Amino acid sequence: MDESLAITWRRIPERYRLEGSACSKCSSNFFPPRKLCPTCRRKGTISAKTFCGKGKIYSFTEIFSPPGGFELEAPYTIAIVQLEEGPKITAQITAPHGEIKIGDPVEMVFRKIQEDGEEGLIHYGFKFRLVK
Amino acid sequence: MVGIVGYGAYVPSFRIKPEEIAKIWGEEGERIKKGLGIQEKSVPALDEDAATMAVEAAKNALKVSGIDAQKIGAVYVGSESHPYAVKPTATMVAEAIGATPNTMAADLEFACKAGSAGIQICMGLVASNMINYGLAIGSDTSQGRPGDALEYTAGAGAAAYLIGREKSQVLAEIEATCSFTTDTPDFWRRQHAEFPTHGGRFTGVPAYFKHVMSATQMLFEKTNTRASDYDYFVFHQPNGKFPLEAAKKLGIDAAKLKQGLMTPVIGNTYSAASLIGLASVLDVAKAGQTILVTSFGSGAGSDSFALRVTDKIENRKKGIPLAHYVAQKEYLCYGLYVKHRRKLKSL
Questions:
Q1: In chain A, domain spans
Q2: A73-119, pLDDT tens digit by residue?
């Protein structure tokens, strides 16, 4: 089922430019953005923070049996990327599985993620590419 | 002083050679290579389109300029392959680079010259103090009907130009611009049609050559200059041969076109073609050198620009040179190319 328009719209800042959040009290960074710091609770103030998009491969795997909408791209690589600012996020990697090692530096790229059929919305967002 | 304060290009890493396409259609690859003056062309990845490539080029332009995206007052994206028929590419690009919400934005379409039209619009807005910085982008994943001559040349790429007026930031001053425009039916794509239709030989003399040469001559007259006053020339490049022929007719030394002639190695990137050529020149040009750029868009029109490089050109070190993208390549067979360009209906 297609994602609701409101959810897609709300997530544009995080998907397009890696906008997460940060706690002013303990300086923890969050992605996806949190509205409350789990450590400081009400004592911390949360504000939006755009991450620089650089990170490292923390772990990765190859998808041979993709969910609907990703059939043309299989096999493709999914990784957990540790951002320079700390948070770990799951994302597609633009390089084939065989070219990647744990610890490789990567940077965020803006790519097409999925299309809702021929007439629906085109979803864009972050993927990561190897920094050579 | 209105000019370029940042520029950036992007070319996807996939390539296909004319021999590979010719093999499918029973044509002679070598003859086509020679006839079109093309060695290979770029192909977008499955997850790339005019919007994603525009974002890559725009980010490179911002890096070179060192300007905060929030200061951009206008974003124009020129393309003939906008991902949506209705829903602007410019808003997606502006959002992705962080230029929203206090910015003007619109999509432009004028076959292969929508990007240079965007530069002219930004020049006007910047010169009239309506905005401080304007971003003009040409980006295309152009399509050629399977088996058509265009299939050998239709490539993919983007180039972005940030226009400003601060002398301390301008890396190339745009000294003059002019346009030559007529209604010429040389190439079109109707609403809902997947592939463009063109007039074959008609795309040459009455279309490309008439407009490119007229606009260039108009600029010579307007600026009281001649061919020998410029160090580099960049013409729209639908193939590797037309720009060289136009230069010959205008009495321009072919050597002055070489640096800006990228179609032989990346294909015709449509709205990005002349702008990628200019990026290639700016990547090597020295302070004080002069560049003449003439775009061409079917339908038809040409925009000419006279540029003078300043000592701020050193800012290019902060960006990624075009050569980086041209060197990164992975070849596709025709089967994978069909998948990448979704040329099979069942895909």
A1: 5-130
A2: 999 999 999 999 999 999 999 999 999 999 999 999 999 999 999 89
